[in-house]
Design a protein that fits this description.
Elements lengths: L4 E6 L2 E6 L22 E2 L4 E3 L4 E7 L5 E7 L2 E6 L3 E14 L7 E4 L2 E5 L4 E17 L1
Antiparallel strand pairs: 1-2, 3-5, 4-5, 5-6, 6-11, 7-11, 8-9, 8-10, 8-11
Length: 137
């Protein structure tokens, strides 16, 4: 059975519910704008990390550009990069420690950060976070 999400927005706070008995996802989300990608391929198989606490789907554009769209649950994570990455935080809140930096930066919905190629970075996800990661060749 396909579950259809419904979205409720009031005064900048959004609540998403799945229209299926027992399946409700609620939370506070900062809504900046609605985005969509056209004419893309979405890989059906999920990318699953940290015992399912970080998940994403790969989106491939006609020109070969690749992005992932995902969700991170609260927790501490460390990631490595092969290429330069731009992490757009669509909703949620986290702290990031970028390579070569000593201070953690707080990032919230509507903000982004860039990670150099061939490096490692740390995240402290403070609340459920929706993200879009762009891989820059």
């Amino acid at each position: 059975m396909i579950q259809t999400p419904s979205l409720h927005v009031e005064e900048g706070v959004c609540r998403m519910e799945m229209n299926s008995p027992g399946m409700v996802l609620c939370g506070k989300w900062r809504v900046k704008e609605v985005n969509q990608f056209k004419d893309v391929t979405v890989v059906k198989t999920a990318n699953i990390y940290f015992d399912g606490k970080v998940t994403s789907r790969t989106v491939i554009f006609p020109d070969g550009e690749k992005k992932t769209l995902g969700i991170m649950l609260p927790g501490d994570y460390e990631f490595g990069t092969d290429t330069k990455e731009i992490m757009e935080i669509m909703a949620g809140e986290l702290e990031v420690l970028l390579p070569g930096e000593k201070a953690w930066r707080t990032i919230t919905g509507g903000e982004s950060f860039t990670v150099p190629a061939n490096s490692r970075f740390k995240l402290k996800v403070l609340e459920v976070t929706d993200y879009c990661c762009s891989y820059i060749a």
